[in-house]
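Thread: Modeling a multi-component assembly for a lab meeting

Hi all, long-time lurker, first post. My supervisor asked me to bring a structural picture of a complex we are working on to next week's group meeting, and I have zero experience with this. I have the sequence lines for every component (459 residues in total). Could someone generate the structure of the whole assembly? Inputs are pasted exactly as I received them:
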Amino acid sequence: MKPKSLVNIDDYDKDDIMRIIDTACKFKKNPNRQLLKGKVCAALFFEPSTRTRLSFETAISRLEGRIVGFSDTATSSATKGESLKDTIMMVSNYTDLIIMRHHLEGSARYASEVSPIPIINAGDGSNQHPTQTMLDIFSIYETQKTLQNLTITIVGDLKYGRAVHSLIEGLSHFEPTFNFVAPEELKIPEKHKVFCDKKSIKYREFTEFSLESINDTDILYMTRVQRERFTDLMEYEKVKNIYILKNDMLKNSRDNLKILHPLPRVKEISQDVDENPKAYYFEQARNGIYARQAVICDLLGIEVNS
Amino acid sequence: MGKELQVAALESGTAIDHIPSDQLFKVVGLLRLQDLKNRITIGNNLGSRKMGTKGIIKISDKFFEEDEINRIALVAPKVKLNIIKNYEVVEKKRVTLPNIVIGIVKCNNPKCITNNEPMKTRFDVIDKDKVILQCHYCEIKINKEDIILSKGK
Ligand SMILES: [Zn+2]
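Re: Modeling a multi-component assembly
Sure thing. I ran the full set together rather than chain by chain. Output:
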C-alpha cells in the first residue's frame, strides 16, 4: 500500500523510492504541467526555512496549484496557544495537502495521525526531512544511472547532520558502500553503524579527509562542519581547514564522481570546485523541485504521464 | 508457613510477588491502585532469599486485564502473579512487555511533540530483554534505567 503521508524516509520502501525517482525524471523533462490545477496546498512553516519553502512553492506553482499558509510562528495560531492538532484539523478542512516544518520532533508524525489529508514533513527539529533525502537520492540516481552498489563518501558532521542519517536509511535498499569521513568529535554515531551492520551494509570510517576516501568513490556528499557543534574549540580550529574540498583533491577521482551538498555551504567546498563538472550541488538543489513535485503528486494520487 | 504469614492471606484476587523493593511504589502507580476501592495489602522490605528484600501487593477481588498488568514489566519484569480464588492459587503468571507502550511513559526528549502537546505518548518496545523503548514520534531510544513514568492520567 502506498503511504498516505511522507513523514520519515522509511515510510518509503524500495519500490516507493524507485516510483518517486521515475516520476521526478518526468518532471525534470517537463516541470510545467497543470496537474495541481484546482488544488490548494498548505505550507505551514512553524519554523522559518526560506530555502525549503521556496522549493516547495516553486514545485507547486509550476504545476499550477495554489498555496496558502504562514512561515513564522509570530503570525501563526501556535503563538496564541492553539494546539498543533487544532491547527492541523482546521487547515485540513481548507486544503488538499499540508506541508509542514516544525521545531518539535515528531510533530509531523502526530499531524499525520490526526489529519485526514496527506502531510509532507519538511523538517521536524533535528529528526527527519525526507524530501531532502529524496532529492539527494534522485540526484544520485540521475548522475550514476543506478542506485545499486555505489560507493558513497559522506564528509563532515556525521554526528548531528540530519541529512546523513536519512540518506543512509534511504540508500540502505540498494547495497551501498559508505565511507564515513568525520573529525573525532563529529564521528558517525554508533546507532548508524548498528543500522548498517544489521542491513549488511559495508562501511569504512576515516578521521582524516584523505585522497584515499575520495578516489574510489562514486558520490562525495559534503556537509557543513559548524563551530557550534564542538565542545572542544581547539579541535575545531584543528579540523576546520582540513575538511575542505579543494579542486586539486579531485585529480585522481573517478570519471563518474559527483559532488553533492545539501546547501547552504559555508567553507567546506572551496569556490574553485564550482567550475569542475563533477560539482553537482546546484543542480541537486534544482532537483528538489522535481522530487517534491513527484512526492506531492504521488500522495495526491495524481498520475504523471511521461 | 512463616513465609505465608508475611502478608495476610487473600480469599480472592491477585497477589503480585517478587517486586523489587525500590520499584514497589512505581508498581502501585502504574496499576493506579490509589484509585481502587478494593481491599489492598501492601508489604515492602520483606525478606527474600533470592532478592534480599522484596515487595508484595495483594488486591482483593481484582483481576487485571493483560495489557493493564503487563505495564509493570517496565519497572519490574520478574514479578510473579498469583491469581487466587477461594484461597487457592488457580493460576500463576508472569508479566511480559507489550510491543507498544501507550500513555504511561514520558519521552525524555524535551523537544518531542509529546512533551508539548496534550496527547498520549507512544513507544515501540524494540528490545524486550533489555527493556529499550523508542519514541514513536521523535524516535529517540530510552534505556530501562532512564524510563520516567508520566504523571498524568
Ligand atoms: Zn519523543
